[in-house]
Amino acid sequence: MDVASVWDPANAPRWESTLHKVIKAVVSLRFSQVAAFDTESAECSEASGFVVDSEKGIILTNRHVALSGPFVGVAVFSNHEEVDVHTIYRDPVHDFGFLKFDVSKIKYMSVAHIDLAPEKAKVGLEIRIVGNDAAEKLSILSGSLSRLDRNCPEYGDNSYNDFDTFYLQAASSASGGSSGSPVIDIEGDAVALQAGGHNKAATDFFLPLDRVVRALRYVQSGELVPRGTIQTQFYHRTFDEVRRLGLTAEAEEEIRRLFTDGVGTLVVEVVLPEGTASGILEEGDVLLAVNGEFITKFVPLEEIIDSSVGREIRLRVQRGGEEMTVSCNVEDLHAITPSRYVEVGGGKLNDLSFQLARQYCVPCKGVYVADASGMFRLDGASDQRGWLITHVDTKPTPNLDAFIEVMQSIPDRERIPVTYCAIADLHTTNVAIVTVDRHWSSFRVGNRNDFTGLWDYTKLAEAKPPNPIKPQNATFPELDASLGPAKQFFRSMVRVSYSMPCRIDHFPRSRRAGSGLVLDAERGIVVVSRSIIPFDMGDLTLTFADSIIVEGKVMFLHPTQNIAFISYNPEHIGSTPVLAAPLSTTDLRQGHKVFLAALNHNHRPVCIETTVTDITSVTIPQSGSPRFRAINFDAITLDTPLAQQCASGVLVDAEGKSISGLWLSYLGERTGSGSDNEYYLGLQIACVQPVLKYLQEAQTPVLRGLAIEVMPVQLSQARLMGLTDEWVRKVELANPQRRQLFLVRRTETASPTAEVLKDLDLILSIDNSTITRVQELDLNDSTAPMVHMKVIRNKEILTVDVPTTEMSGQGTDRVVFWAGALIQAPHKAVLQQSKKLPSHVYISGRSKGSPAYMYGITSTQFITHINGKATHTLDEFVKAVEGLPDNAYVRVKTVSFDLVPVVLSVRMVKHYWPSFEFRKDSAAECGWRRIPID
């Protein structure tokens, strides 16, 4: 490396000697927090650290690197030797922590260490920051200290923030990855610890090392670092500010006499309600002395508090110019810093920490939702951080123990109220009705173990079985006559809610809701959009008359149309007068009058008479991550803006007697901002008939057709592709209203159809019938295994026999979880968008904080080899990973969706990421059976 270019030439030889010694003690850290905890989400990142004890193997880094939650990490030394590290201490408040490694594992270099010298920090001191800058390489940045008394930087709400300490400041432009780097002087001593920087200026913030030196002594001796608190935050303010708060001239004179270089003193900033200082200290109190010793800086204040755990201290303060002396008990800071969490129903919760309570000035108590997933995704918003659970099923949950006790008493699948509030707004109490999930995920508690470096997990009580279902009766509300004759069909509409434990098939959400149409009330058959039921893995409920909630099951997922069929047990709704929707036998046409009967975004019924403006073949745009989208259909559009405010409903004929169409939401492509487009369109009701007749006879639907996606082509374009005048006349006769043909946009990979038809073939006829309507290509049960087709290819009319494909409506039936990656066979959307399958082992997701995330496995990749063994199928993959040793690197050959091969090395961490699979099993309680792999 060329480090001389950043040095002052006069000091270059000395700096060069110093840096070559220091570099041997600096390490690059790759780490992950495997589960959300307290202020941190699950994450993978890179940072720096440096050895402070080369005999015991102790590395100093930042707290936001050592992490408060489950940690997995490695340190890479300057000679590129890698060694495991685990956290042995992270400070409850300040941004430093210590990692431990086995010195004997370093074989090819002598491990050096850097001495800590906080007393050397002076304004104007020339420094070097040595670390893993921007996660690129070991780099060296130069600068000089410009301030020693900067108040702590703030990194945002609901995140870790330091307090009760000064920070050092310099202009050095360090960036991501440099956190934890040593700030050294020309003699090679660390005078500070790199902690953060300013996004909009070349300014860096360094943690002073005074309290680090103290903590290191305890850690080296194997003792717990004593840390005390009076649940109060102090802030350093200059004398001009403190005078305005009431500091008397006499007190200022005394302080200035004792501390001639001082420019201010400490002021009470936050006093936590119900804390040890509550009612004793007040915000704005100016601190003069503690236990008779004048105090103007943080280090001596913390020294007294940390040395007085379990005892009382006396504080001399001025409040509005009035001097007083008060006493306050010092409690153990570690006791109000969480070291365990509960995992239940897909969510993760821990006791509220002093760190977060201080940010919002709330009592340091309560159950904090660190990961609002699964049943604890409480209000459906994307930003779910910051909830405090106060009651579960009306029972108070003041702490984690109470929460565990309440959850153990509730049966699986029970619907219960959860009362909660935002930590930033305790004035507003919220309630959510959640369904207890004890069948998809574990119920366990994790406890921090700094001796082993792994969190110890204890499985809690087995789930109580669901309560027996009792039939319920309800009546539908009377609707206003202004809704017209179609209002009767709201008795045929049900609200459908679907909660998914994992996002397979690249579906972007874990919850969906909308309305469905009851097709058969006697058998309990309902049709609903596939944007609500994308696959058959989840908990499905149906709500009747806004009164009765019953469980449902997925019956059939249409392979190409945007419809899914679900069922419920009619006995569970008793005599509730549900109306089976009468289905029209007449197709809608452009200009037809219809009623749009739908539920708006408030789930209120709306009904309006409108006109069909168009019925035309549309193409839903593809998403970069292939997921289900409807193909080969005619979409109905309406002459009312209300239609674009309603995600689901029905189209009723002009007489108000039967259902002519469905109004559905279609999931579209992902936008550049990360959101997903949705399209609201109508669909002819005739599309349900080929499936419904099978379901009514309790049979599995058999649908067959061409495995292709088509797009319409006007005759003017078709002529340029080789369409003859003779075929133009045939098209005109076949469809006088809309003269069009269809182009094969793409064939489905590995399908029999793809063996004959090619992309961009122009379809003329099938079995001597001219094809001018997209519904003539619909899947049905009457399509023969082989069809006789005429197509235009390269301006030549060809006659070909094309095999059709039988298509299943069961969807994905097997999912493998390995190293935090969600792996499955390529689903239909992948087959539609990919021209070549490198294997049938496809990655459709990964978990943050997992080995897959850390080592570069990404969704849309195919895995072709594990340690050199070919894995073309899921069975071969499971066999290849079964029995692989823990904490060892696995060589994984992947191929991207664009067919670019990449070989990755992925380290297994089975303690946190065990290998298992889910297989669809109708005999299992939730319809899927979990099978461990290891």
Taking Cα atoms only, what radius of gyration do you get, to the nearest Å?
34 Å
Number of β-strand runs: 58
How widely separated are the two ends?
45 Å
Beta fraction: 35-45%
Helix/sheet category:
mainly beta
What is the general shape? elongated
Helix content: 10-25%
The overall pLDDT average reads: 93
Number of separate helices:
14
- Characterize the main sheet: 9 strands, antiparallel
Low-confidence segments, given as residue ranges, are 1-7
In short:
This protein has 934 residues and is mostly beta strands. Strands 21, 22, 23, 24, 25, 26, 27, 28 and 29 form a 9-stranded antiparallel β-sheet that branches. Strands 1-2-3-6-5-4 form a 6-stranded antiparallel barrel.
Could you characterize the architecture of this molecule?
The chain is mainly beta. It contains 14 helices and 58 strands. The strands form twelve sheets. Strands 21, 22, 23, 24, 25, 26, 27, 28 and 29 form a nine-stranded antiparallel β-sheet that branches. Strands 1-2-3-6-5-4 form a six-stranded antiparallel barrel. Strands 7-8-9-12-11-10 form a six-stranded antiparallel β-barrel. A hairpin with a 2-residue loop joins strand 50 (814-818) and strand 51. The radius of gyration is 34 Å and the shape is elongated.
Question: What's the structural blueprint in terms of helices and strands?
Answer:
Layout: H1 12-22, E1 26-33, E2 43-53, E3 58-61, H2 63-66, E4 71-76, E5 82-90, E6 97-100, E7 126-133, E8 137-150, E9 167-170, E10 182-184, E11 190-197, E12 204-208, H3 210-220, E13 228-229, E14 232-238, H4 239-244, H5 249-258, E15 264-271, E16 286-290, E17 293-294, H6 298-306, E18 312-319, E19 322-329, E20 331-332, E21 340-344, E22 347-351, H7 354-360, E23 367-371, E24 387-392, E25 395-396, H8 400-408, E26 415-422, E27 425-435, E28 444-447, E29 456-459, E30 493-499, E31 511-520, E32 525-529, E33 539-544, E34 548-557, E35 563-568, E36 593-599, E37 605-618, E38 633-638, E39 648-653, E40 659-670, E41 676-684, H9 689-696, E42 703-705, E43 708-714, H10 715-720, H11 725-734, E44 740-747, E45 762-766, E46 769-770, E47 786-793, E48 796-803, E49 805-807, E50 814-818, E51 821-824, H12 828-833, E52 842-846, H13 851-854, E53 862-866, E54 869-870, H14 874-881, E55 889-895, E56 901-907, E57 916-920, E58 928-932
Antiparallel strand pairs: 1-2, 1-4, 2-3, 3-6, 4-5, 5-6, 7-8, 7-10, 8-9, 9-12, 10-11, 11-12, 13-20, 14-15, 16-17, 16-18, 18-19, 21-22, 21-28, 22-23, 23-24, 24-25, 24-26, 26-27, 28-29, 30-31, 30-33, 31-32, 32-35, 33-34, 34-35, 36-37, 36-39, 37-38, 39-40, 40-41, 42-49, 43-44, 44-45, 45-46, ...
